[in-house]
């Protein structure tokens, strides 16, 4: 069986810690082994390792997340990069085509799709391995995992199984018996049910009724034979060769896999999971799984009951007598919310599109310290940039800005317009508009970068296709 | 009559907006005329102007506040500068000696002391002018203003008048009659009472009883004949020549004027004031007088009832469903407090001594954007510095740090080690350790300053005794 982990999300729901460059799955705020904090991606990738599934797993993600996923799941993580964000159906189609035409996976092999960030116990992943057998045993097009609800949530989709009539439980030999139906109720590992229908986000009373009828939460885990989806793509005249599909990716319909595939499948099985599963998608659910109420430095709390504080800023936060609240501060902003209201953050911020003020990158990270826009349209952005040892910026230049770097610590090699030089703490480097430059850190380096120009928020630098070794050789000549 | 306004305060109670360099009286958060925001100092100084008292007024303040007071009350405000902070008795003694030996004020003239920051209506200042007559009429050593309490506060000191026996009301001719006692009760402008005793911060029940007995709040307004205090200083062998007292200032006992003088005076009169008076010393009292619930940029509030937000940071604040709270953010820190708990801030922060991250100065202001301390003890501080048009830094050098300036906007003249040059937006200026330098802004200027060295937080620059004109002339030669 192959596993495809979908890494999505624009990150508004956990603002201001998440942003367009750092979705919630990359926040290091969960308690990991050895007292270290880990992100959702780190946690799931670790669990996949512990349950022996990591070597069969791929992560599908947008281009913008590539660097972050490598930081959190390792440089060698197998990635399927979506050319652009287009919802789950295109992402899963691309993944299937990749497995088929690039990785050479057999059409008979079962593929399981899951989100990259469920908060679950290891048993969840053991259960996932059973989906393969469910597909083979049931002869269904598709097998889903259904989480046994613990309360009548209005946030989730429900999978309604066939009930009120004899349960269609099929044993390994293919016999259908009523006797074995009781296995499903006693929680036998191989028990599954057929799906009657799906219900999206019901009101609380309806959800309570669904629970009584044995409905399960849809946790976004779908298994199918690779051949099933490839055939479906052929029917839809979607290319099944990877390069071709990448080229046509922008023409795929923006729709969910649930809607486009699952709900239209002839017969779907569901495997109930009766264990810990949480969607840590909002501050109130996430703080339940934070081991400590305070994360970050310079936090003083007094009479603050059940209040969680996360401080990623360098300045102190003092909390006096605030109950049941979440206070989160990052270079992107400050959130002060009572826990019950915190799910509204996405809606409140839906029209705000601000540049991320903090980004983790392949080479390290940067924080925006200050941003100014003058009446004449010229802009200034001041950043602190941290480059890890042995890492380098790409060779690039800017059409719209000049930069001044003051090196604070460390040393490295810099190339500026074909001139190689050593730079170290105390050096001031003036990079005029259009100058090609890059930097390799021999030791960890920090610098203050003052950018002056226009469109500092929107415009990308122009990357030159050359890697560090080429440049070094070029300069050595 | 002369007025001495005492400007005190270290500024912890309105943290993080107030700091050691910007006490609460300098926060521009009150609604002023013409829709502009004004500080407590600006408001009181304006009211003194409107009531005709400004030209008889002096402000006594510590050296650290000199620049700020000139920014808020005008460059020509008469100042009495305390060489160091030593409580109210030394400050008032210095002020009296200044009036006597420098300003040549007659020993028969009445001097009235008041805080620089009471939040009052103009009637308060009209009432103050009556203190002169009370001193003359009553023959008392001292006349105080007493505010009629509106609730049994535990925070204030109470002035308990003589009651339960015939009131000693003395008319202009010096006759004591019971008939005129009724004037005191009908609120006649010239009515005053004699003081029986003082009670500091009583418990609520005791305060309620004091109110019933006609006790008044001590609002820190004391009037006396200059000669009375000068004689007292002579008795205490305290110098009555200004220069001499300045030299011996550090030997004066650190004690309050209430304790050292008022409570030991033979006979004290009190003039009741039955009008609006507020001590805006804590967030919960101050927010009552803020016209708007939101001050600053980038604030989003939803379901936040009776919550006040002040944002001096460049990053957005979002508030969801927080009631009756004060949220204040500045480069010094972030406070999230329910209003009832907000007076505790001073106590909670009492051991925290952090460098102010924002300072208004004679020449403009600066904001600390970033501060780092490396394991080897070296430090980096990054500031944005704004210099007003026509203003200049003093000529100075640093023994412990070098600086890199990136000029962002404007232009000016700079002197660096006896070399004069013009600097403008885009210039990068490297100021090595020990280099003498100053800058004069021809237009408003902004720059990013990166300081590298040690003791960046504590150490002052070394100021050279030269003003800009001298330097220009020196360089022109």
UniProtKB/TrEMBL annotation, chains A, B:
Keyword list, A-Z: Nucleotidyltransferase, Transferase
Mannose-6-phosphate isomerase type II C-terminal domain mapped to chain residues: 361-465
Pfam families per UniProt: MannoseP_isomer, NTP_transferase
InterPro entries documented for this protein: Man6P_isomerase-2_C, Mannose-6P_isomerase_type2, NTP_transferase_dom, Nucleotide-diphossugar_trans, RmlC-like_jellyroll, RmlC_Cupin_sf
Domain annotation Nucleotidyl transferase: ranges: 4-289
GO MF assignments: mannose-1-phosphate guanylyltransferase (GTP) activity
One GO BP: GDP-mannose biosynthetic process
Record carries keyword Transferase: yes
Protein name per its UniProtKB record: Mannose-1-phosphate guanylyltransferase
Source organism per UniProt: Paenibacillus algorifonticola
